[in-house]
């Protein structure tokens, strides 16, 4: 769970526009790829934690078969993918809220416009 950013997202602008059109982001908010990917990563991390809790104590039978060797290692990768996929498919709206706050805080910093990651 160390890396918060989802792999580089070529569709970030489309996703930001979708969030604007659905009312999750203000129409005037700028597009910032790095901030959007970080916000999505945070949402994915949230889902990773939630899905991990669902699998706590599950042994043997299940998606990974009967107590296979290394099952826990594979399960953690599967859970990470679940988290990333849930966030990338819209999640619960956490990414737009985090993105909005990141840009708001960036505006409050001096020289923020010269440090933009778009």
Structure description:
The longest helix is centred in the middle third of the chain and has 23 residues, at 33-55. This protein has 118 residues and is mainly alpha-helical. The protein has one domain. Helix 2 crosses helix 3. It has helices spanning 12-21, 33-55, 71-88, 94-108. The chain has four helices and no strands. The model has no long low-confidence stretch (mean pLDDT 79).
Features:
118 residues, mainly alpha, 4 helices, 0% strand
Question: What structural class should be given to the helix and strand makeup?
Answer: mainly alpha
How big a fraction of the residues is strand?
under 5%
Order of helices and strands: HHHH
- What is the count of DSSP helices, taking H or I runs of 4+ residues? 4
Task: State the low-pLDDT regions, or none.
Answer: none
The shape, in one word, is elongated
**What Rg is obtained from the alpha carbons, in whole angstroms?**
17 Å
Explain the layout of strands and helices:
Layout: H1 12-21, H2 33-55, H3 71-88, H4 94-108
Helix pairs in contact: 2-3, 2-4
What's this, in brief?
56% of the residues lie in helices and 0% in strands.
